[in-house]
Amino acid sequence: MRPWLLGPVQAAVALLLAPGLVGAIRWMKARLQSRAGSPPWQPYLELRKLFAKEVVVSSNASWLFRAAPFIVFGSTVTVTLLVPLLAVPLPFGGAGDLLVVVYLLLLGTFFLALAGLDPGSPFGGMGASREMTVAALAEPTMALAIFALAWGAGSTNLGQIALRTLSMPSEALAPGHVLAFAAIFLVTLAETGRLPVDNPSTHLELTMIHEAMILEYSGRYLALIEWAAALKLLVFFSLLGNLFAPWGVASVITPGALLWAAGTLALKLLALGGVIALVETHIAKLRLFRVPELLSASFILALLAVTASFLLR
Amino acid sequence: MSPEMVSQLSVGGSTLVLLGGLMMLWRRGVAAHIGAFTFQSVALAATMAMVGWFAGDWQLWAVAALLLLVKGIGIPLLLKRMERRFGSERELEPYVNTATSLLIGGLLVLLAYIVTAPLVSVSRLPTRTGMPLAIGLVFVSLFIIISRKKALTQVLGFLMLENGIALLAVLGTHGIPIIVEIGVFLDVALGFIVMQVFVYQIHETFESIDVEQLNRLRE
Amino acid sequence: MTVTSAPFLALLLPPLVAALLALVLPPRRFLAGVAHAALALVSLGAALGLIHLVLDGETPTWGPTDLFRVDALSALLALCVAFVTALAALLGPGPGRDQHYTPAQIRRFRVFASLFAFTMLVAVTANNVGVMWIAIEATTIVSAVIVPLTVSKASVEASWKYILIGSVGIALAFVGTVLGYFDFVTLVGPRESALNWTVLLANARVLHPPVIELAFVFILIGYGTKAGLAPMHTWLPDAHSEAPSALSAMMSGVLLAVALYAIIRWKAVVASVVGPVFPNRLLIGLGLLSLAIAALSLVIQRQYKRLLAYSSIEHTGLMCMGLALGPLGVFASMLHLVNHTVAKSMMFFLSGRILDRYGTPEIGSVSGLLRVMPWTGGLFAAGMLALLGLPPFGMFLSEFTLLRAGFADGLGGLMAVVLVFLAVAFVSLLGHLNRMLYGAAPAEMRVGEGSRWDVLPLAGCVAALIVLGIAVPAPMTALLHRIVEIAGR
Fold first, then answer.
1. CA A216 to the chain's CA centroid
2. Rounded to whole angstroms, how far apart are CA atoms B104 and A300?
3. Which chains touch A (3 or more CB pairs under 8 A)?
């Protein structure tokens, strides 16, 4: 098997798994709340339906509104080429390290916020400003937390970080590692619009963030954005899963190893999805002005992670 | 235990102890504050016991047990009694808001690094790695006392300050002489009891434990 | 070195016994008062005995690993503590003196004032700096209990500020102590006696300068809080003005000095590790700041007890600076300490008498003091002049020596600034004094001294101040010279 194929394979697997992940979380949540819930494959059906529907665009909207879904989707797909989903080291790993990943994700967020502002609807503007508030606190936290890991591994390359943990399993329980995990977990909640920061299951709340930005979208645009959002969730989950517990990730590229890697990845995603479902069942949404407090707390965790790895060097 | 392991455990334990202090900054409810303090004391006792095991020092075990008994169980019980009385007085509007407080807390930890650089470079003990975090907790506790308005929160800040010093002592020196240790313990316990009496007295005289009202004596 | 427990027991036991007796005896009994005073006098006698021993060239130690040790510095402080304790026992709350105290309050005061004295005596005689810290921390606890002897909003507020700021400050001093011990253990290895001041001093040469500098910063902030040095002084005026006058006298007269004592002990160690420049700079900075803030605050005070409290900050600042001005400065500073102890405790007792008669703490409401209470008024005026540093009182001599030490050290500019602040304090204190002494007495004010005999010990204080101002007694000079050998390096 040719190594350069690995990137596209990863992207394809991620694109395939992402809607399923969202569906699985929804289904688990419904079960935890004693509801029947829609089946886990429901998001695939939704995507198919959306792609088939006609697009309605506000007459106020500019080209930005039409371009944004592609930029969002494109940047997120690019990220899946760079993060270690199935194997390390990656063929394109050298092209991008953790900073590139963080900024690609931020690029998508940025264009989504612009697109929210573009048609001039009040909800879009509110959502965009809130999203930026969250991102302004979440992004540095994310960078800092991965930096803590990078300090231990001596490289900002995500593949190298995963390899290092693979070679020294005791590192996985080092204080810096654990703290960085906690910080990234909180960031994941904020960045992917989960409770307690944002409620993913409704677009009828005044305090919604993500749903408010994309309220004006329909048809295939909406499909792309929803798909990208699911992909983003998957990327964060696989970062959590593969940076902190990289076991199962293929370090030699054989079909068998890759299959095994895909299996373990699916398991990790399901486990993390279960945790999210549990969390979302247990806690209520934070009031909007308390969100920065949560994010500063995660920033502190990331900071402590850096200091802990620095101390133990 | 290998020295690397002890280093890791020291940093891990100290981080947990410091997190207790940061939780004070984050949360507002009295119950959450008491929980943070209890958590911190237990983490401190565990760290002490770990160091005691590593150093083979029974005195540290004794001190850890005493600490668990007094700060992990005794004082939290008294605090809970106070909570039943003052629980409704949450830390709603501290002088510094929560998000800023947390960021300042982070900066204080960084400051502690700079301040303790000479200490860490001097010592050869594997446990020295946690010392910056202990001083960080000292700073964070001072900040809690300065920036919070409720007398009860200030008492908790003081108790956390003492925890920070105890952590510093155990990590840096594997325990100060036992006679001093016991004296310090008595002082802290007595000081807490007197402060507790005063909190009740403030409540009786001012019908609230908000220290913002303590502004009669000025100039 | 001699090992003798008798002088230590005679010094430290009486206050403990006094606390126990006060607990069991009915406080209104005449006998209870007599026993209380007698025990305080035993302690005073023991302190004098210790001074005698020290002047004979001995350094008595006591306890396992030389836990207690008395050199000239300890002996002087022990004398000051025992002296003010005795005054407080003679003049403090008791039956017939202050009608507004209930028996329960008198009992509470006697128990905790005795414990307060005990903790201060332990602090100044302990060789182990850890024990010294424990004792000083305990002074906060036991004295805070009796600050609100009569509960009011103001006294509760004062006591809360006192115990919180005091405890936090002293905790920082413990950080410094731990850091000192840390450095010692790192270099020499763990030892039971490692916290002994003598051991620290003997090993000072090998300690790490950066660590000890850090430790000293913590210690200075910590004990400086207790000593009332600015900017950590905010508790002091409140606590001193709201506490019962006898307690104010003890706090202002000796508690500040005891905290300063702890700083002197550590300064000796630090100076032998890093040289005198670093600690001296900090001491001069804090001292000058205290002096400045106190002098400027004196101008706007409206209550006489707060006035005295700020004057305490001013004088502590002066002493703190003196410590940094070479041997002559240390000599002056210690002489100033003795003068301040006598003058300030006397002034607080007098202000207690004024408060009892006029029923108001406001300067503006007190007038015609000389007519209403001629003895109290006269002594109050004398004490105030002494605090101003006028001849023939002792403080003139000590302040003059201190300034001379500063000029001799080449710090002329600094001394000029000090003189300016002293002048500010002088003018404002004199203005406040005039307002109280003269003018018409308020209508229906009872004229004449209340409890006549109580004036006697206070008059003795004025006499002592005059003696210290005209010619310092030879034993005192000898003692001070020995202290300079300890702290003046």
1. 23
2. 10
3. B
Question: Looking at the complex, does the CB of residue A168 fall below 8 Å from at least one CB of chain B?
Answer: no
Contact yes or no for A262/A13 (Cβ under 8 A) = yes
Cis amide linkage into residue C392, ω under 30° from 0? yes
Contact assessment for residue C113 and residue C467, using Cβ atoms and an 8 Å cutoff: no
Distance CA C223, CA B211 (A): 24
Instruction: Give B 52-81 residues with CB within 8 A of chain C.
Output: none
Distance from CA of A289 to the nearest CA of B (A): 10
State ipTM.
Answer: 0.94
* Any C CB within 8 A of B87 CB: no
Whole-model pTM? 0.90
In chain C, what's the furthest Cα-to-Cα distance? 72
- CB-based contact, B191 to chain A, within 8 Å: no
Reference C232, options C250, C249, C256; nearest CA is C256
Residues in chain B within 8 Å Cβ distance of C208: 118, 122
Residue A175 has its nearest CB partner, among B8, B113, B132, at B8
Tokens linked to C190 = 């763990």
Residue B104 structure tokens: 């300042």
Helix (H, G, I), strand (E, B) or coil at C61: strand
Which residue intervals of C148-208 are DSSP H helices? 153-188, 197-202
CA angle in degrees (0–180, nearest 5) for B101-B107-B111: 135
d(CA B111, CA A79): 36
**pLDDT tens-digit series, residues C211-247:** 999 999 999 999 999 999 989 999 999 999 999 999 9
Asked if B98 lies within 8 A of A296 by C-beta distance, the reply is yes
Q: Do the beta carbons of residue C323 and residue C344 sit within 8 Å? A: no
